[in-house]
Amino acid sequence: MTQKEISITYREYGNISELGPEDRLLAEAAIEATDRSYSPYSKFRVGAAVRLSGGKIVCGSNQENIAYPSGLCAERTAMFYAGAAFPDTCMEAIAIAAVQNGELCSTPASPCGACRQVMAEYQTKTKKAMRIILVGAAKILVFDKVDDLLPFIFDSLK
What does the pLDDT read at residue 157? Predict the structure, then answer.
């Protein structure tokens, strides 16, 4: 037996104004996308914004359904829209923000496993790292690639 260790690197910012201009714009778009969330059951409004190569930003928000689990997370809504509308365009970065009780959550919301795997698929498809920006009111976390959130990406069917 060999014991191994995984290490990740990420950056933590104190607020949105500390981000560079491109990341700040993306984070603001994710926060704005929370307004378009359909979340009458959880009241947990999530927005995601994807920056495509070339700078275009597409957004998504969580969409719930009374027939749980028929809804869809904000991250997948944004990525699937980007993949359908711009199939040959690389997704460079995604920002995710969550609002509860009318306020941006102080701690960033982390994507679920299914969303992480979809991020991994698009990153693998384009062979270019996708940055992830998790936006909270008290801190913002920035990861340089999906592997930092999902180190053992499922890719066995290649």
Answer: 64
